[in-house]
Design a protein that fits this description.
Radius of gyration: 23 Å
CATH class of the largest domain: Alpha Beta
Strand order of the largest sheet: 6-9-10-3-11-12
CATH topology of the largest domain: Rossmann fold
Number of domains: 2
Number of helices: 18
Structural class: alpha/beta
Strand content: 25-35%
Oligomer: single chain
Distance between the termini: 47 Å
CATH superfamily of the largest domain: P-loop containing nucleotide triphosphate hydrolases
Number of strands: 24
Length: 497
Amino acid sequence: MSDAAPPLLEMRGIVKSFPGVRALRRVDLTLAAGEVLALLGENGAGKSTLMRILGGAQSPDSGTIRLSGRELDLRTPHDAQRAGVAVIYQEFNLVPALTAAENIFLGRELSRFGFVARGEQKRRARELFRRIGAEIDPDALCRDLSVAQQQMVEIAKALAFEARILVMDEPSAALTVLEVERLYAIIRDLKSHGIGIIYISHRLEEIFAVCDRVTVLRDGANAGERPVGDISRGGLIRLMVGRELTDEFPKRDAIRGDVRFEVRGLSRGRAVRDVSFDVRRGEVLAITGLIGAGRTEAMRAIFGADHRDAGEIILDGRVLAIGAPRDAIRAGIGFLTEDRKGQGLVLAHSVRDNFGLPNLNWLSRGGFVRRGAERIAFAQQVDGLRIKVPSQETAARNLSGGNQQKVVLAKWLARQCDVLIFDEPTRGVDVGAKFEIYQLINDLAAQGKAIVIVSSELPEVLGMADRILVMHEGRVTGEIMDARRATQEEIMELAVA
């Protein structure tokens, strides 16, 4: 950064506390025009809180924010937008029932003679989509768009009010390899136009692919700052977790027994077409493929969350009658959904209540929940999984993404399920928490459980699986018997078959 001109963004001495939690401890952050800054840290390190302050969604207890040397008072998101700050949160801020064009200009509608100029909005939306290379119909409802297309709408929305600073929180979490490459190209284009970008991701390979500099937070404080070219992957991990991780994917010797779980001829419309597979006792089976391949749809049909047109589900040689999730739960199947906030948790309820929901059969007596037993059982899971939570009464919505994921894990572990389906188990989870989840998966396999992992992260698939199934357009297009000898190229060839 030049000594003559102030940086595009300066955040100095930012402090923020919540009841029982000191979220930020005098945090500093700087960003230059045309720079991509990686903001890293474990879940709960303070990244999201810092960005909510920058986006005007929360106010700091103390500290200053300057844009091009001018001090700002960002009391609301509108203040941040007027200053040129746009935040694309991990959970998109789109109205599903509105069109892409309507979402882009929501709250800032273009008008003519007192009426919304819908034609002009659509024309402007097309120009914005053309600029970022997105083929999206401005009249398409956002609920009908893919995750990648919704990401493009969010970027277009930021460009529509000429943002100077763009914050991207886990922008690639639900994107395929090809879609991520397109995202990189967009970021490089935005960078060339002088837009400063703060990039939050737990996928470390992305940091080295697209970022210029990295700022790391740990326990609400600055842990280090480096040019990306001056730090290794191992060095980044040490800054983030404060300790050495000798191997991102803990090794284990798989002792596989007889076939424990079988799926035969599973079909659901065109989303899932004649899918069959089995999982042995003590085996980790990974199912991968591009977005829309039918992976999640197959798992939901197995669990009874969606109706299946055909197919048998067999556990320990017994055909199961699964018509609803409660049937799967009673049979000994647990399902960690890919959308922990929408499907895995009741966000307004306490973490203890969320833990108890699938365990009421043994935590209740005479129609009443045994609160003492529930507290003790949950406390054991909190200790075992190292869940960071102020109290058992804390609402699930107030936890970081990684700790929310651990609460979902806790409720299924307490049921002692025989089959565990993990759909994107480490999405939005930091590298330290990922390691803990991987160790847990290994421990469960060692206990003789049948484990299914659905994942878009190919390093995770190759590092954790014993065997790999690849899906494309609802069908299984290939099986890799020895995952440790497979390559990402081999998987991608099957994924686009």
